[in-house]
Specification:
about 500 residues, alpha/beta, FAD/NAD(P)-binding domain, 3 domains, seven-stranded mixed beta sheet, five-stranded parallel beta sheet, 19 strands
């Protein structure tokens, strides 16, 4: 039985562990922190519980498929709850609109926003239809396949399909072909930012994010996103896996360009396979110290990186009916302020995503209270323009709270805060070893997508594999689950195990 060591007990590490155990490997996971989950973690304060980062459950079938593969009933592990109101969207003119999963209800909302403009109404649904075609093609040809060999791409793509994708246009420019209404455009563009790149420069392929949200809906896992981490832990242990907490890996061992173990707390541990669920660039920079192996890897300084996120966690002793599970506030100058963020500066005016799981899940906080996360896109730590000192944190916290309290129905929110905490890019960097404090790993530029994105294995380096947000197909929980599936299948094929 081949032994596999996995570095990191985040979504990627836990999910690939479960698959490899099902394939018949012996698996041990080594986690730096004293809790598992990586960035998909939680904060507990008395009876308040906050998901640390991930909050939006898209592509629920990816969450379920792992348990089906392991021949387990997912309902014994976690409970996904479909939601009808996808987003409450607050605009700077004090208007609020609810975007519903039910198409006739959505159509009514669109008509209200456009004041009955037939062209914009039609354009909105044409945008969804055309981008849904792109998604179906990407799901079939891109998202579930490895591109270790460029020939795999040639068998998946044809020139007409590439042209039809309009991938070289930005998300914004592509959407403008269908929609002129600023409020609708801003709502759609805000969602494309979930991959950590500006919608004004990113490929139009990321317009499939708001499209899939509308077609397949969003879900909430009872107890919050960390409940899925707990489900994975339960699955891994049941299958015979071992999870070592408070066990930071300091080095990957190699012999003749073959990974053969790791160094943990000064001691060598040997295995047949090493899987890195740790941040890709951190791994290359800090864990691979063999000079011969490093020479085979593209320098990480030549790569482009995503932005980061500033998050406030607020425990409130009052209910706020205007808050849905998922909420967005969009200021009047979204484009200008996002440009500042992606140029390395803090925005002048804040747009934000507000996660309020207590609006439908009473396990997240005491009765008649709310537990909310307020998330704002900010530069990563590779920018020299922002220094996250205590003064910076205080300033940006105050600015964020001022914006939050300006929203309709939230005017008195500052008076009802009974708990407050924060997460900055420095936390991403120091606690979770994310290179440059980037919340989303490598940027999703065209030249860092598909065959140009790091794959589950580096050519000429044996027994070393990768999964995670910076690995194809990309970031987000669902995509990391796909990454782990691709990687586990590759390992199984190489070592000839069978389910």
């Amino acid at each position: 039985m081949k032994k596999v060591f996995i570095i990191g007990a985040g979504i990627g590490g836990l999910s690939i562990a479960a698959r490899l155990l099902q394939y018949g490997f012996k698996v041990e996971i080594f986690e730096k922190n004293n809790t598992i989950g990586g960035k998909t973690n939680f904060i507990q304060y008395k009876n308040f519980k906050f998901d640390l980062t991930a909050s939006i459950m898209m592509f629920p079938q990816n969450y379920i498929d792992l348990f089906l593969f392991c021949r387990e009933d997912y309902r014994n592990y976690f409970t996904p709850i479909p939601i009808n109101n996808l987003y409450n969207v607050f605009y700077s003119d004090n208007s609020i609109y609810t975007f519903n999963a039910h198409l006739p209800t959505l159509n009514k909302t669109i008509s209200e926003i456009t004041e009955g403009n037939i062209k914009d109404n039609y354009g909105y649904f044409e945008f969804l239809s055309n981008n849904y075609k792109k998604y179906l093609w990407a799901e079939d040809s891109i998202l579930n396949k490895s591109f270790l060999k460029t020939s795999n791409l040639l068998t998946s793509l044809t020139l007409p399909k590439v042209i039809n994708l309009n991938a070289f246009a930005s998300s914004y420019d592509d959407a403008k072909k269908y929609i002129k209404n600023k409020k609708l455009l801003d709502y759609l563009m805000f969602q494309t930012m979930y991959v950590g790149i500006s919608p004004y420069t990113s490929s139009s392929i990321y317009n499939i994010i708001p499209t899939v949200t509308q077609y397949y809906g969003l879900y909430h896992i009872k107890g919050g996103m960390y409940s899925y981490i707990a489900a994975l832990e339960k699955l891994v242990i049941k299958k015979g896996g071992i999870i070592h907490k408070s066990s930071p890996v300091h080095k990957i061992l190699f012999k003749n360009n073959k990974a053969n173990g790791i160094v943990v707390n000064g001691q060598n541990h040997y295995s047949d396979v090493v899987v890195c669920s740790s941040d890709y660039s951190y791994t290359i920079k800090s864990l691979i110290k063999d000079s011969n192996v490093k020479d085979l890897i593209k320098p990480i300084n030549n790569l482009e990186y995503s932005c980061s996120t500033f998050i406030l966690y607020l425990g409130l002793d009052k209910k706020y009916p205007n808050l849905n599970l998922h909420n967005i506030y969009i200021n009047n100058e979204l484009k200008e302020n996002l440009k500042l963020t992606f140029d390395g500066f803090l925005p002048n005016d804040i747009s934000m995503y507000i996660y309020c799981p207590s609006s439908l899940d009473d396990t997240m906080c005491p009765k008649n209270c709310e537990a909310i996360n307020v998330m704002v896109r900010v530069p990563n730590t590779l920018s020299n323009n922002v220094n996250w000192t205590s003064e910076t944190i205080y300033y940006f916290t105050k600015k964020t709270l001022k914006t939050l309290s300006s929203l309709r129905g939230l005017k008195d929110i500052l008076e009802h805060i009974v708990y407050i905490n924060h997460l900055t890019p420095l936390d991403f960097k120091n606690k979770f070893n994310t290179y440059g404090g980037c919340a989303f790993g490598l940027s999703h530029t065209l030249k860092q997508s598909v065959i140009f994105r790091p794959q589950c294995q580096i050519p000429k380096i044996k027994n070393l594999f990768f999964t995670g947000a910076s690995i194809h197909p990309g970031n987000g929980v669902a995509m990391v689950l796909k990454s782990s599936k691709i990687c586990a299948s590759k390992i199984n094929k190489m070592y000839m195990h069978n389910t």
